Each structure stands twice: as structure tokens, then as C-alpha cells.
From TrEMBL:
SUPFAM superfamilies: Probable bacterial effector-binding domain (SSF55136)
One Pfam family hit: GyrI-like
Stretches assigned to the GyrI-like small molecule binding domain: 167-296
Protein's recorded name: Effector-binding domain-containing protein
Length: 297
């Protein structure tokens, strides 16, 4: 009986060893919590990646799972990120790290030594975590709940680009649109807003209309870049965002998470209403925007 138990234990140990050395898909695992939602972490990884020595762009399986390939000397380290939302303001992050060239060596050494691979991985992810905390400190998002977005007639310019480029597109076109309307004495009927007509979450690219609400009249300026239409009001989830408008899309992700958690069907075409002109500068945490995610009919 004892011999049988020894054989079983030996077999289990052998299977475990074979799995650990040859099948286990990563060399090292780092886990930490972040006081934000997955979309913020996703975007911070992509921005941070551009400052690193990488050999390829970040691969995004989905919003919560990404892969990086970072080069350290003669080694390529694979960082597989898995982001798990815990609450509206807390996420758990797991980073599975593999050294392509020295995986077996790392697996053998890690249980017994404080390896350079471990030290480098910890240092790299501590650097990322500090940058994430710094970014989180620069904006605020508050979910308000369901709200009715009002209809309005508007003058608008259609633009395309990345989410990151949206604020620059607004800053460039703000004086052009406002001055053109002012010259014809067009009466404004509210603050500027952005209507996203297409959002490709996989590539972080958007098509959007930069709009000025106006009073409709018979003497509107004619210009090849300026168009006019009736913006149709709709029911939506609302959030209030404070911070630089470059990262107002953080509220988009917060609304996506809130809708998923509460089983609310939405259309991922956000509308942003702005209350500050970025060209005037000032304390960015005092900049305000209302962000709406339309409900499905």
C-alpha cells in the first residue's frame, strides 16, 4: 500500500514538473490592483508601450486582454495582460511574462534564485504602475445614470482619427467654426459637442462630428467644410468627466463597464458636450464635459 502511494505521489510530482517546465505558458506572473476601470488601463498600456523598446505594436485580443513584445538586450519578453474589473473603480491586473530565448532557464532558476529576469520584470511593471497612478490622478469620471439628450439644430465639421487625436481636431476647428458663424451673426444655442458616428474599439479610431448648436436661420454661412443638420435627441447613460479632453474617452470605457455590469443595452457611439475651451488652458481638473452613451431602442 505504501509503495502504491509513493508511486502515485511520484507520478503526480513528475507530471507537475513536466507541466511546469515544458507546458506552463509563462515564466513569471505579476498581479496588482489598480483604482480605475479596464479601459483606462488598456489605454495607459498603449501609451506606455510607445516609450518602451518594443518590436511590434500592442496586440489587442479584446479590451481586457493585450500582448506586448518588449526587447531587453538580446531577449524578447512577452507581456500578456489580463485585466479583470472588480468594481466601477477597481480592477485586478495579471501580467504573464515569458522570455522567448530563456524560458526553460528561467523556470528552473526562479524557485531558487532572485534572477535578473525577475528583477527586470518587477522594475518594468513598477514603472508602469507609477505612470498609471499619475494618469489616474489627472482626471475624474462620475456615472450619473440615465438621461435624455436634447435635440438641437447644429453646424458641424466631420472628422476622422484616433481617440487621442480628437481633442487636437477640436482645438484646430474651434476658432474656424466659431469665427465663421460669428461673422454671419449666427446665434449659438448651447455649448459645442462631439457626436461619434463610428468607434472601432480594436484600433482606437473614430469618425465624429464636431458640432456647434445654433438657431436655424435663412442666412447660414455656406462653406465646403461646414454642414448643417438636426441632431436628434435620445435616451442615454450619462457620465461627468473632469480633465484634459484628450482623455475624455476614459468616460466612454466607464460607461461601457457600467452598462455591461447592469445589463443595459447601449450603442457604442458616445456624445460629448464640452463646457471649456481647451485653447484657453487652465487647471484641467476643472474642465468639464458631459458624456452620453445612447441606449438601444
Amino acid at each position: 500500500m505504501k509503495k502504491k502511494i509513493v508511486l502515485i505521489l511520484g507520478a503526480c510530482l513528475l507530471v507537475g514538473l513536466v507541466w511546469y517546465l515544458f507546458i506552463k505558458p509563462y515564466d513569471y506572473l505579476v498581479t496588482f490592483k489598480a483604482k480605475t476601470f479596464p479601459g483606462t488601463i488598456n489605454q495607459t498600456i498603449k501609451i506606455w508601450d510607445k516609450t518602451m523598446n518594443t518590436i511590434a505594436n500592442v496586440e489587442q485580443k479584446n479590451l481586457n486582454q493585450l500582448r506586448q513584445q518588449l526587447k531587453f538586450g538580446d531577449s524578447v519578453h512577452i507581456y500578456d495582460w489580463d485585466i479583470e474589473p472588480i468594481s466601477d473603480s477597481l480592477s485586478k491586473v495579471r501580467v504573464y511574462v515569458t522570455d522567448r530565448q530563456h524560458s526553460l532557464k528561467n523556470k528552473i532558476a526562479i524557485p531558487f534564485f532572485d534572477t535578473d529576469f525577475e528583477k527586470n520584470t518587477k522594475k518594468t511593471l513598477i514603472d508602469f504602475n507609477e505612470k498609471l497612478k499619475e494618469h489616474i490622478s489627472k482626471f475624474k469620471v462620475k456615472i450619473v445614470g440615465q438621461y435624455e439628450v436634447k435635440s438641437t439644430y447644429c453646424a458641424y465639421i466631420s472628422l476622422k482619427g484616433t481617440q487621442y487625436e480628437k481633442a487636437n481636431g477640436m482645438m484646430i476647428n474651434y476658432p474656424f467654426l466659431s469665427n465663421t458663424l460669428a461673422e454671419k451673426k449666427v446665434k449659438l444655442n448651447g455649448t459645442p459637442f462631439v457626436e461619434v458616428t463610428n468607434w472601432d474599439i480594436q484600433t482606437d479610431s473614430i469618425a465624429y462630428n464636431f458640432c456647434f448648436p445654433i438657431i436655424k436661420s435663412d442666412s447660414l454661412p455656406i462653406h465646403e467644410e461646414i454642414k448643417y443638420k438636426q441632431f436628434t435627441g435620445k435616451k442615454a447613460l450619462k457620465a461627468v468627466y473632469n480633465g484634459n479632453y484628450i482623455t475624455s474617452d476614459r468616460a466612454w470605457y466607464a460607461l461601457l463597464d457600467h452598462a455591461k455590469k447592469n445589463k443595459i443595452e447601449i450603442e457604442a457611439n458616445p456624445v460629448e458636450v464640452f463646457y471649456n475651451n481647451p485653447n484657453f488652458g487652465g487647471d484641467e481638473l476643472n474642465w468639464k464635459a458631459e458624456i452620453y452613451m445612447p441606449l438601444k431602442d
